[in-house]
Amino acid sequence: MNFSANQNQTPNPTTNPQSPNQTWWKEAVVYQIYPRSFKDSNGDGVGDLQGIIEKLDYIKSLGVDVVWFNPIYPSPNCDNGYDVSDYEGIMPEFGTMQDFDRLLKGLHQRNIKLMMDLVVNHSSDEHEWFKQASSSKENPYRDYYHWWPAEKGKPPYRDSFFDIEEGAWKYDEKTDSYFLHYFATKQPDLNWENPVLREEVFKLMRFWLDKGVDGFRMDVISYISKDINFPEITQEYLDQNDKGRWGIYYAKGPHLHDYLQQMNREVLSQYDIMTVGEGSGVTIEEATNFVDEDRKELDMFFHFDGMYIGLLPGKYKQPDPAGWKLTDFKKLYSKWNDIFAEKGWGSIYLGNHDQPRMVSRWGNDAPEFAAVSSKMLHTFLLTMRATPYIYAGDEIGMGNIKFDDIHDYRDIETLNMYQKLQKDGEDTQKYMEGWKLTARDNSRTPFQWNDQENAGFTTGKPWIKVNTNFNVVNEASQDVDPNSVLNYFRKLIQFRKSHPILVYGDYQLLDEANEQVYAYARSLDDQKLLVLLNFSAQEAEYTSLQPIHTSAILINNYSDLKVGQEKVFLKPYQAVMINLK
Ligand code: GLC
Ligand code: CA
Question: How many angstroms separate the CA atoms of 211 and 222, rounded?
Fold first, then answer.
C-alpha cells in the first residue's frame, strides 16, 4: 500500500543536493493508454483490461514509470468514457473489478505506477445523482448540479464545447428548468459550490487511492468552480478579458483554488501520489497558482498553448494555410519552461487522445520522414525540463488516419461540428480536409501490434478503423529492428533515467531566430548538454559558439553527423544530443 502522510511534499533522497524538491514524479516518464484502442482480448472489437494485462511486459519493456488510463468507469460512452455513470465501477465492456485489481497488481509487480482519469467537472446524465436531481426540485441530489428555473427566463448564454448550437444550458421539461453542461448535453456539470458534492468527490477519490492507485489525471479540473450568479457574459467581455475564449473564462471560477486546496488537504496530501490537472483555459499568468508547492494544490498540469500553434481561431480546428513557425513553438515552450524554473513543475506532451498524432501534427508523416521525425519529437519530449507524457502508439510512430468519409468518425466533437456546418450550409468538404490534420479520432485508431489482420488489435471488427499503414508501422517489426522508432524511444528513456541533468538541469534556448533548428542547452553543476533538433524536411545549419566533436555525440537519430569548423549540418529531422563538457 502507498498510504503515507504528506509524502508528496517530502523530497526523495536527492541525487543532487543542489536541486531542491526532487520527487519521483518529476523523474517519471508517463505512458498514456486509451483502453478502448489498446488491445482487445475477446474479439468484440473494443480494447479492454484483459488486453492491457496481456501487454504488461511490453509496457515494462518501454522503461516507463507510470501509466495513465483514460476513463474505464461505467459510461453510456457519449464521449468515450468522459461521461461517467458510476465512479466506483468498471465499464463492463472493459472488464470487471477483478480484472482491474489484477491489472493494478501486474503493474505494481513490474514497478509501474497507475494514474486514473478523474472526470468530476461533469458526470453522465445517466449517473444516479443526475437521475435523482432531475426528478424533482426538492430531491436531495438537486444541488449536485447547476439549474436555472425557467420562470427566471432564459439563462445567460454559456458556450458548450460539443453542442455548438444550443449553448451550455439544456432545458429539462420535468422540472421546467435548464441544467448546465459545458460539454455534451449528456455531460451535466457537477456543482462544486455544494460542499456535499465536494465530499462525494473526495470519497470516490479515496476509494481508488485506497485500492492502491498512484495518482490522478484530472479532466478539465480548471472548470469546476462557477460563478453561480451566472452573470451575462458577452463576446466583448471575453475579447477584453479572456482572449475571446470561453475556456479562459471557465478556468477562472471564483473558488477554484479553494477547492483544489481543500482536495489536497483532505485527500491528496494523505497519499504518496502524483497529480496532473488538465489545465484547459489556464494561462501562463495563472500557472504557478496551480503548482507552486507552497500552495498545496496540484503537482502538474497540462497547458494547451502549444496545441493552438498553426490553427485558425475558432472551434473548427482548422489548420492555418500559412502553416506554423518554429520560432513560435520555441518561444512558447521556452516561456513555459521558464515559468517553472523556480517554483512548481511542468508537464510536456505533443499528443494525446484529444490531439492528432504527434508525427502528423509536429513532424512529418510522409513515409520517408515518419520514422526519423518521430524520433526527433521523442528527443524533444525526453530532453525537456518537465515530466514527459507519451501517448501510446507514438512510441512506434503511428500517424493520423485522415478519414475521407464522415461516417468513419466516431468522436462526438467531430460529428457534432459536422452537423452544425451542414445546418449552416457550410462547405463541409473543406472542413473535412482540415480534420485530417486535427480531428481527435486520428489518435484513437487501434494500436498497431503487428502486420496481421486488424494490426493484431482484435479478431473481431474494430470499433474504429485501423490505419492502413499497419503493415509498415507496427510494434512486432520494430521490436526486432535496432534502428526502429521503438528502440530509439527505449534508449532515450534509459538515457533520461541515467542523466538527472535532463530532469533537473537548467534549460537555455539557443539560436532563437533559427526557423529550422530548435537548439537548447541543459546544464547541471559542471555538466552541459546540447540538444539540436531539425524540425524541417530540409538540411539545416546550426552555428556553435564552441567546437563540436563528433566523439561527444550521445544521441543521434541518424548514423552520422556532419560537423564543420563552427557549424553543425543537420539532415532532415535530424536530432542530436552532444556533450559539451
Ligand atoms: C477533456 C477530455 C476530453 C473530453 C472532455 C470532456 O478535455 O480529455 O476527451 O472530451 O474533457 O470530458
Ligand atoms: Ca474487448
Answer: 26
